[in-house]
Design brief:
With 319 residues, the chain is α/β, with parallel strands linked by helices. It contains 11 helices and 11 strands. The strands form 3 sheets. It has a 7-stranded parallel sheet, with helices on both faces. Strands 1-11 form a two-stranded parallel sheet. Helix 8 packs parallel to helix 10.
């Protein structure tokens, strides 16, 4: 049985030790698809409050949001303290429970290049100053990064492990419109290619089961993403949570979530066509609380992984 090339394997090969991502949520960050810059309400599947609900939101920053045109940031010191506190707590647990020795600081929630350059530079530099940090992974949108920020990350990439994570989701503009994405597929392609030219590592997020998409469309998205030169991939099934536009569509009978059988078949086919050098960071997603409306198979992560491995076994692979 051949092991799929995972992101963990990539990091072990490169650094010769256990490297863990430390997921960080900085208060004051938002998204141009939430604040009205490109759209209102966020993507139809996004529960806007969910990012900060489980993390230590800084009280003074509640209601304060940065964007690319913000002239000042009076809360930068608080954000830097928040960054330090989250890193210290999470990395200590990862050392204790998993034997982690090196770390990538993962700016995870919301859009982490959607702020003035001075703020971003201060946060990125602070993160890279922490003990045993070998680099950064920055989650963002392709319509929310400037050439100035890209140029700076390109400089950092000469000595550090720098990743940028883009939500591709689909290469079909009609799908992106349906989910209120706020940008088109060409925009994602453009910034992935620019990021690669700048010497950055790129991770692409793909969602299977988006409204109106056939399996053929899902696989075409994967094929295109690979062709753009992504270095790593995260596969997600689309699931429905309460307090979202998608939840309203689901309750009205206008959206039917992807079945586990179709997701497994699509995932296996997408992995089969994946270039060997593209590492896999995630093969599924879900949530196990009362906010999940559907599909119920997304509730149990362990069961999902078991079923994924059973499906992969048929083609001689394991995750």
């Amino acid at each position: 049985m051949k092991q799929i090339y995972t992101y963990g394997s990539y990091l072990r090969e490169k650094f010769g030790t256990k490297v863990y991502k430390v997921g960080i949520n900085i208060s004051g960050f938002t998204c141009p698809n939430i604040d009205g810059t490109v759209a209102k309400g966020g993507c139809t599947f996004c529960e806007n409050d969910s990012f900060s609900a489980s993390t230590n939101e800084v009280k003074e920053l509640k209601g304060f949001h940065l964007n690319l045109d913000s002239k000042e940031n009076p809360f930068l010191d608080k954000q830097l303290t928040q960054l330090q506190q989250q890193f210290d707590a999470i990395s200590a647990r990862q050392r204790r429970e998993y034997g982690a020795q090196k770390f990538l600081v993962y700016f995870q929630s919301f859009t982490n290049t959607y702020a003035p350059f001075e703020t971003l530079k201060a946060l990125y530099d602070k993160a890279l100053s922490f003990d045993d940090v070998v680099g950064l992974s920055i989650g963002t949108r392709s319509d929310s990064i400037t050439d100035e920020t890209l140029e700076y990350l390109s400089e950092l990439a000469k000595t550090k492990e720098i990743w940028i994570e883009f939500g591709i989701q689909s290469v079909y503009d009609e799908t992106l419109e349906k989910i209120n994405r706020g940008h088109n597929a060409q925009n994602v392609k453009e910034w992935i290619l620019k990021s690669k030219e700048a010497g950055l590592n790129v991770c692409g997020h793909l969602i299977f089961g988006l409204p109106g998409e056939t399996q053929e469309m899902m696989l075409e998205t994967a094929k295109e993403a690979y062709a753009w030169g992504i270095d790593s991939v995260k596969y997600h099934p689309l699931y429905v949570v309460k307090r979202t536009a998608l939840a309203n569509e689901y309750m009205r009978g206008e959206f039917e979530p992807i079945s586990e059988e179709l997701y497994l078949d699509t995932l296996v086919k997408a992995i089969e066509m994946k270039p060997e050098n593209v590492s896999v960071q995630r093969v599924t997603a879900g949530i196990d609380d009362d906010s999940l409306l559907a599909p119920q198979w997304c509730r149990d992560k362990n069961k999902q992984i078991k079923h994924i491995n059973q499906a992969l076994k048929k083609i001689g692979l394991k995750y």
